Amino acid sequence: MLAELTAASLLEMVVDGFIAAGAGKLTEAALPKLRTLWRKIRDRLARRPELPALPETPTGAIDPQVLPILDAELVNDPPFAEEVRAIAQEYQQLIQQQAQMTQNNYGSNNKNYQIGSINEANFS
């Protein structure tokens, strides 16, 4: 799922997720997982006084000084990194399920339906 856990990949996932949620394109199952992921990251970074306060729901650019600090947190605290990775993977699985369901629903509209049958007796 997550080949490499980096601050950039996590923040991109979170921002894209909240943008999708705002557009109504995120399932009710995925949104709580996204909020949990962001809360973990935001709470960890809130301990760092050199960083500005992070928004409740990020839907735009995040201060670039967050990247190296979050990367350092991920490297220096393996339990934190594993917890974040697990939440991110669960979130991605929910997104993939949503995409699969959307694809299946779209694909089901391409069925051939038999509208009636020709009865040979009608031709005699």
Keywords:
124 residues, mainly alpha, 4 helices, globular
Description:
With 124 residues, this protein is mainly alpha-helical. The chain is built from four helices and no strands. α1 (7-22) crosses α2 (30-46), α2 packs antiparallel against α4 (78-107) and α3 (66-76) packs across α4 (78-107). It is globular.
Largest sheet report: none
Average pLDDT level: 83
Distance between the termini: 64 Å
Compute the CA-based radius of gyration.
23 Å
| Low-pLDDT runs | 112-124
Number of strands: 0
Helix coverage percent of residues? 55-70%
Q: Estimate the global geometry from the Cα principal axes.
A: globular
The secondary-structure element order is HHHH
Q: Helix/strand-derived class?
A: mainly alpha
Q: Given the structure, what is the number of helices?
A: 4
- What portion of residues belong to β-strands? under 5%
- This entry's quaternary arrangement is single chain
Précis, in short:
Helices cover 60% and strands 0% of the residues.
Helices, strands, pairings?
Elements: H1 7-22, H2 30-46, H3 66-76, H4 78-107
Helix pairs in contact: 1-2, 2-4, 3-4
